[in-house]
From TrEMBL:
Residues 94-114 are annotated as: Disordered. Residues 100-114 have a biased composition (Basic residues). This is F-box domain-containing protein. It comes from the Eukaryota.
Length: 114
């Protein structure tokens, strides 16, 4: 339905579908949803999936499912997932692992001296 609303320019229906998709994301399905072909076509859905995945990363089973799907990506089985991998592994100029401009509390990495 989201796809049709997008194709036909039905912004109100698209917004309702987006809200329904977001409401139905769960720790049980978030990994597969994040790496789906459908998600790869829609940056707004992809971003909310990545955000929900990161929020739920410590939920039982999520990390294991993420590890398994990364294996699929590495084997070339999910070529549409490059953007998701980039988002999940982003190293921002304002610090490692930070989001939305927040500074990391982690100390800067230093190379051992010779």
């Amino acid at each position: 339905m989201y796809r049709l609303a997008d194709q036909w320019g039905l912004e109100s229906l698209k917004a309702q579908c987006f809200a329904a998709i977001k409401a139905n994301l769960s720790p049980d399905t978030i990994v597969r949803d994040t790496f789906s072909t459908f998600t790869s076509y829609y940056p707004d859905i992809q971003q909310v999936c990545v955000d929900v995945l990161l929020y739920n990363i410590s939920f039982p089973g999520v990390r294991q499912r993420l590890d398994a799907i990364i294996d699929e990506v590495v084997r070339g089985e999910l070529p549409h997932s490059a953007d998701v991998v980039r988002k999940l592994t982003a190293i921002r100029s304002d610090g490692f692992g930070t989001s939305k401009g927040k500074k990391s509390k982690r100390p800067a990495h230093r190379m051992p001296s010779d």
